[in-house]
Amino acid sequence: MYDYLIVGAGLFGAIFAHEANKAGKKVLVIDKRDHIAGNIYTKEVEGIQVHQYGAHIFHTSNKEVWDYVQQFAEFNRYTNAPVARYKDELYNMPFNMNTFNKMWGVTTPQEAKDKIAAQIKEAGITEPKNLEEQAISLVGRDIYEKLVKGYTEKQWGRRATELPSFIIKRLPVRFVYDNNYFNDKYQGIPVGGYTQLVEKMLEGIEVRLSTDFFADREHLSGLAEKIVFTGMIDEYYDYCYGELEYRSLRFETEVLDCENYQGNAVVNYTEYEIPYTRIIEHKHFEF
Questions:
Q1: Sign of the CA dihedral 10, 26, 22, 71?
Q2: pLDDT of res. 249
Q3: Neighbour count for residue 23 (Cβ, 10 Å)
Q4: Rg of the Cα trace of the chain?
């Protein structure tokens, strides 16, 4: 008998397994995929650590968390500073003075504030009825039309006028020249990728891959005193309320024979007519 059956070898499952093992507990980790590390899994391709399930940037303001993760990997000083592309115009994200200068030619925070305030006043929206009206009442029409509307509609698979206003409570607007996406004190990506970080967490622990919990739930549940489940919550309850909406990602990967394709790790495509939300060039995360 095991003390714990941990379903999922992602970050949470691996940390739980590491700490339980350290405390003298007998644990078994299973994962239905053929690899560890869950959605932060990285795979080396052409000498580049590719984030197989989308970009993952580690960031926290909690020193205890930062110190903890350092024992498993060395982190670089990568700073997330995505670029948004609308037609042939490039804007810095999140919305900051660099964005406003490119959009309107303003150079001071007060000029930017006045421009946004004037557009909000011109819209005259007092009670936003949908996401579109909510966004315009927060940042004005220019920012909404170029940087929010199309991107949001692609992500949700619905038109902004069909989405409820409560989805956007606030849109971060910074009146400084700073392209750092996160406000957290600590930020970076493990040198050599996330997979080797999780490998170190799981050292000395039994791990069974390509093992689907739901394919043999009764037998696997009987192996341990307690279960730590980190998979899909709707699947755990046998979809008794149906499937959770808005949980779909599709990735297309290309290997291009060029040194530098787009000059940044993440470029968002905000036009609705462009059929994808972003292009990630993985080499910029580490190099």
A1: negative
A2: 85
A3: 9
A4: 22
Instruction: State how beta strands 206-208 and 224-229 pair.
Output: unpaired
Amino acid (one-letter) located at 163? L
Place of tokens 């039309």: 145
Count of Cβ atoms closer than 10 Å to residue 43 Cβ: 14
Cβ pair 78, 180 in contact under 8 A: no
Q: What is the pLDDT of residues 233-275, one digit of tens each?
A: 999 999 999 999 877 789 999 999 999 999 999 999 999 999 9
Helix (H, G, I), strand (E, B) or coil at 224: strand
Return the pLDDT at 14: 98
Picking from 138, 134, 94, 98, the residue whose alpha carbon sits closest to that of residue 116 is 138
What residues does 86 pair with on adjacent strands? 89
Look up residue 40 and give its two tokens.
Answer: 């932060």
d(CA 42, CA 53): 8
